[in-house]
Amino acid sequence: MMTYPFQQFSISTRLAVWYGLSFLLMLSVFVVFLYASFHLSLHHDFNDQMQADTERTLEMVSGSSNEPRLVSDDALSSGAYTMDGSAGTYVRVLSSDGEVLHRSANFPAAASFSPRPPAGTLESNRGHSWQGAPARSTYASVRGPDGSAVGWVEITRLESAVHRELHRLGWLLAVGIVLGTGVAAVAGHRLARRALRPVTDITQAARRIEAEDLRQRLPTEFGVHDELTELAETLNGLLERLDASFTRERRFRADAAHEMFTPLSAIQSETDVALRMDRSPPAYRQSLEAVRRHAGRMSTIVEDLLELSRAEALRVDEVGPVDVGRAVAGVVDEFQGRAAERGIALRIRTDSGVEARISPSDLVSVVTNLIDNAIKYTPEKGCVEAAVRLEGRHAVVRVKDTGRGLSGGQKEQLFDRFYRAGNGKDVRGSGLGLSIAQAIVAAYGGTLDAESSGAGEGSTFTVRLPRA
User: For the whole prediction, is pTM greater than 0.85?
Assistant: First the structure.
């Protein structure tokens, strides 16, 4: 696994480090640009000053026919000045063959350097070391009346002041970079901790939430609605769904225990009565039939629980299209005998070519539960009708009955596990059929809804599945 620098530190520390490094990079680029600009500006001013001194000196020593005109020390020194104790402008007048004819009064004779005029007549500019300090000398030719070169003017300036200023500027900029980066890192750390304070509040609130008590919620008021607020609201929504899910699971466990306890208690009671005294074979047979009946009900509950678990854990793979009308017609045929026993008319109306992407066995399970539920709650001489239609992008299956119907409160509980309309005592079944059907339909991206005009007005269950 790839690791990154500072990965072991906190988020606020990493943000402060990256902020400081970014600030250091930007500040360094700016400082380098500033230093380079100042360096070029100082050297440009230095060269301009040397050029001005050269032109002024040439005006004073305009040449004769053989050699430059010599001027007094005062006049020559007027073009040579001292900026401070060690830096200034120094002037020498040279003959055409490079012999020193005159020098400015501030030129130290004992520490002079050998002149090096160019071989031609062009002006030259060269750097060298003089008395252990960097210096720059400019040689300009002195012209006679006929325009010929009769000598040279040497202008020398020390670069110590320029280098000293650049050195001082460099140190100031370096100290500024260090202090600025340090201040930026400290400020970045404080800002990061302040910005991440809501995360700390969310973490502390999350630690107080227990697995069995999800009623507490994370704080969402941070003074501004930002990404952390959206995160807290999303987590609160997740907690609400988990709380609702855990509540359903607890109720489911209690209902399952109750539903299993009833037949088990009946079996135990029948067994105790049968063993209490000797009985005739017909009495024993009656007790055993009662035990078998209660065991059969318990077996039905267990089978439905297993089917519900399978439906809720269903993972849909790629399935081919299924002819919905044919599948529904097959289920209707299977229930015709049971419907006839109760005097219920069971009919089907289906459009041709209605296909949906669902496993045939899962579709049969859904329709079986719906028709079984309709027949249970429809009285004699009633009617149950199954219809298959194509509506937009959905294959629709409707199971309509003329049974008990649903009141407003029953609609909300209809798909709950173990729920049976009315008191449920006069209806066989585990109360899990609609929950199984809804779980299967949801796994395939469909919906299962129930409609009723009220008690005694019948019910209509509508399944919508994505069409093939």
Answer: no
